[in-house]
Design a protein that fits this description.
Length: 391
């Protein structure tokens, strides 16, 4: 029945594709799409294109199941997009509780499973903004900005940087329209991080600079976060002096906000971890550009400190930082130590549900094996990584 808990189209598609013995690339070729596009549709991170369900229904001979699932999803989408005649405060409170539930689930549940529902709620909120009036409209807009920011983060974590940037820009616009300065600045700072991940250092610096400027009326911790992002962009451009000045300013600004009422990451001992990771990552980038082993050794020291202080339960972050530490060790000429570290992380990395983290981990593994592949520990770690399915 349509009112029962729906099975996502992507799950149905994966089931029928496997029944017919096809890979994602093979189905994509038959349907006129790439394997990566099929992967994103199956994981729920891409909306099903017009005509795709019908083609796959015919190719996979799915007994009408794919078309029925797709049509039911489209009907639900249409209902959610239809704005109500009036938006009551109780509706906003209910949606705020749903947002809190997403925050609790993020990091514990695969983002690919959460994203379709989260973005459906975002479409509903967009309709509510049209129908709401006065203070209720302001509250709906603030909540919409929160949802859009979270959608940006989930898209980024899934490796979809283009969609992440679009959601962060939407969050910024909605936040600015109602004077939600903290979130407007955070959205720009996080967009800077996405640009940095893509290797676009100039854009990372520009976005972080805009975040710091808008953050003058925000909590000092927000400005400090923006400055950390800007410092990281300067390092990626090879601008060592600008990086050092900007990170020093971030630390100074953060000192004004460590009052127990700002962001949790601003409080000790977490802020020491944040600074160590920022310094280590930036020095790693500078070492790669300058080929200076001394910079790589500084990077390894900072990243090692950050890892030692990081709570054990932050598995996703520990894998990401571990990859950067291995990268720094390789740049410092410590190939065996880098290999041992990667081999030790391989089994855990294979269980991480984050394309962002896995992508960075794989890139470091491949780079080090390409440069030092015949070295003892790295040669052995390569086998461990392949067994774990990481590379």
């Amino acid at each position: 029945m349509e009112d029962d808990l729906p099975i996502p189209f992507g799950h149905r598609l994966r089931d029928w594709r496997r029944r017919r013995g096809l890979t994602q690339a093979e189905l994509g070729s038959l349907a006129g799409y790439t394997g990566s596009q099929v992967s994103r549709i199956e994981s729920g991170t891409r909306r099903v294109p017009t005509g795709f369900a019908e083609r796959c229904e015919a190719i996979l001979r799915a007994d009408g199941e794919l078309m029925d699932t797709w049509l039911a999803a489209e009907r639900r989408r249409a209902r959610l997009a239809r704005p109500p005649a009036r938006v009551e405060p109780s509706m906003v409170r209910a949606m705020s509780s749903i947002y809190d539930a997403y925050l609790r689930a993020e990091g514990q549940v695969d983002g690919g499973a959460l994203l379709p529902a989260l973005e459906a709620h975002l479409r509903a909120l967009a309709g509510w903004r049209q129908a709401a009036e006065g203070q209720v409209r302001t509250e709906v807009t603030r909540l919409s900005a929160d949802f859009a920011y979270l959608a940006g983060w989930m898209r980024y974590d899934r490796g979809d940087s283009g969609a992440a940037l679009a959601w962060y820009e939407t969050a910024r616009g909605w936040a600015e329209s109602v004077g939600y300065t903290d979130l407007a600045s955070l959205s720009l700072a996080q967009a800077s991080t996405v640009a940095w991940t893509r290797g676009d250092a100039p854009r990372a610096v520009d976005l972080a600079g805009a975040a710091a400027d808008r953050g003058r009326a925000a909590h000092p911790g927000i400005r400090a976060w923006a400055m950390i992002a800007k410092a990281r962009g300067h390092a990626l451009m090879g601008e060592a002096s600008a990086y050092a000045r900007t990170l020093d300013r971030a630390e100074t600004v953060a000192a004004d906000g460590g009052d127990g009422e700002g962001p949790a990451w601003l409080q000790e001992p977490t802020f020491t971890v944040v600074l160590s990771l920022a310094r280590g990552t930036a020095m790693r980038d500078l070492a790669r550009l300058t080929r200076r082993p001394s910079a790589a050794r500084i990077a390894a020291g900072e990243l090692g400190l950050g890892t030692a202080l990081m709570p054990a339960e932050l598995r996703r972050d520990r894998i990401m930082v571990g990859a950067r530490l291995a990268d720094a060790l390789g740049l410092a000429g410590e190939a065996d130590q880098a290999g041992e570290l990667l081999a030790g992380l391989a089994a855990t990395a294979a269980t991480i549900q984050s394309e962002r983290v896995l992508g960075e981990f794989r890139a470091v593994c491949r780079r080090l094996m390409r440069v030092y592949g015949t070295s003892g520990a790295l040669r052995d770690s390569g086998e461990a990584l392949r067994v774990a399915g990481v590379v």
